[in-house]
Amino acid sequence: MRWLLGKLGMAAGGALLLAGLAAPDVRQCDCDLSRPETMAARECALCREAEKQPPGPPVFFLKDINPRKPNRMLALPRNHTKGPHALAEMTPAERLEFWTAAIDKARSLWGDQWGLALNGDASRTQCHMHVHIGRLLDGVETPNFVVVDGPAQIPLPQDGNGLWIHPQGGKLHVHLGEIITETVLLR
Ligand SMILES: [Zn+2]
Ligand SMILES: [Zn+2]
Ligand SMILES: [Zn+2]
């Protein structure tokens, strides 16, 4: 019996190890364009997608390849920043360009029902900066937001948190302080 429990314990440990492998911690990502071997990791797949894009436009869009999220798109900057590609690593001008393009795309897809969601660092499985575009689900509103006039005023998330954004009365709500945010969008 003791032997059997030991076996079960090992099996559980193996499962945990696999779960750990399935969810890489992008905060540790050390990828660097000048060292192609570092870009080969699964968590750097969106970096490789960025490199496939023509060098001109600073923002590009991809359909979410997850078959369980058929209504989702991603907005991504063409350029890389280091490690987990924190939004704070982009210049204010780059962020304005990025948010403006992402909002335009979201509005073109979903009218005034659009939402954008950036997951917190701990819940991201890809290191390259990416924002989820989708239709905001009903009933997800919380009191935890700031109101801004437009993309130039979208604040930076703090402490590794994400943010989600939706239009409200001609302005934008920016919801802060959450790690898993994409769940406010239709899958
Ligand atoms: Zn990476
Ligand atoms: Zn990248
Ligand atoms: Zn709101």
Commentary on this structure:
The chain has helices at 2-22, 45-52, 92-110, and strands at residues 59-63, 73-77, 114-118, 131-135, 145-148, 162-168, 171-178. It has 187 residues and is α+β, with helices and mostly antiparallel strands. The protein has one domain: HIT family, subunit A (2-Layer Sandwich). Strand 6 (162-168) and strand 7 (171-178) form a beta hairpin. The radius of gyration is 18 Å and the shape is globular. The chain starts with a helix and ends in a 9-residue tail after the last strand. Residues 1-21 have low confidence and may be disordered. The structure holds zinc ion (3 copies). One zinc ion binds at residues 141, 145, 166, 168, 173, 175.
Topology of this protein?
Blueprint: H1 2-22, H2 45-52, E1 59-63, E2 73-77, H3 92-110, E3 114-118, E4 131-135, E5 145-148, E6 162-168, E7 171-178
Bound molecules: zinc ion (3 copies).
- Total beta-strand segments: 7
Radius of gyration: 18 Å
| Strand line-up in the sheet with most strands | 1-2-4-3-6-7-5
Q: Give every kind of bound small molecule, once each.
A: zinc ion
Mean pLDDT equals: 90
Strand pairing plus helix content: what structural class?
alpha+beta
What is the name of the CATH topology? HIT family, subunit A
CATH class: Alpha Beta
